[in-house]
Specification:
This protein has 7 helices and 7 strands; from the N terminus they run βαβαβαβαβαβααβ. The protein is α/β, with parallel strands linked by helices and 234 residues long. It is globular and about 50 Å long.
Length: 234
């Protein structure tokens, strides 16, 4: 598709990969609604990049339904979902609580499902759409302390494959991107502390560019899944 034809809903759009992707779409001539829980930061980001802000907590089904309905109204329909809302929680199995695991799954997996479901209903009605689920290298390989986060992202990968099989007959491309470590607020929000900027590691703009490249392929084909790694992180 042409990037200038994109009318996108970007969850987790107030910072990081979501913000960078919405900004890239808008700079290419497209339009974007960005959604997040924190309204002040959401509005500030929207003003900065020219997006439309809609507050939404993806854990809440009613808010998700309203989000998609409002996006359709604001953009006069939409044709791209960047399913990006998520967060990390990292602890060893022996320290992991049921509450912490359920919380991560509710956002990263159940929330992604509900947004994907509502978007798919609209895309089926118009017989066209694009869904990109933002997963992680943690959805391909486990690591120490990653039980909750890896479980949520492995589950997202499984859902992506199911949606792809279901939605292809409706001209809906379902894709997944798996970034390795990206220098955003992710680790700080996950309680792992801020890190100094490293020019050899990935930044949000790298993932945004990859997402736009996936979308820009002619509609007769699609890239089912791609992973993005830093070449030689030091």
């Amino acid at each position: 598709m042409e990037l200038s034809d994109i009318k996108a809903l970007v969850t987790g759009g107030s910072s990081g990969i979501g913000k960078a992707t919405a900004k890239a779409i808008i700079e290419a001539g497209g339009k974007a609604v960005i959604a997040a829980r924190g309204i002040d930061k959401l509005k500030s980001t929207a003003d900065d990049i020219g997006a439309i802000p809609i507050q939404c907590d993806v854990r809440d089904e009613k808010q998700v339904i309203n989000l998609v309905e409002d996006t359709i109204e604001e953009l006069d329909g939409f044709n791209v979902l960047i399913n990006n809302a998520g967060y990390g929680q990292f602890s060893k199995l022996t320290d992991l609580s049921e509450k912490a695991l359920k919380s991560v799954l509710q956002v990263n997996t159940v929330g992604a499902m509900m947004v994907g479901r509502e978007a798919a209903r609209h895309f089926i009605d118009q017989d066209y759409g694009n869904i990109i689920n933002v997963s992680s290298s943690a959805g391909k390989r486990g690591f120490e302390g990653g039980t909750a986060y890896c479980a949520s992202k492995f589950a997202l990968s499984g859902m992506t494959e199911c949606w792809r099989a279901e939605l292809r007959p409706h001209n809906i491309r379902v894709m997944q991107i798996n970034p390795s470590e990206v220098q955003t607020e992710f680790f700080d929000k996950a309680g792992r502390g801020g890190r100094d900027f490293n020019p050899t590691k990935l930044v949000a703009d790298d993932i945004a560019k990859a997402i736009c490249n996936m979308l820009s392929l002619h509609d007769r084909g699609f890239i089912t899944e791609t992973s993005v790694w830093a070449t030689n992180p030091q």
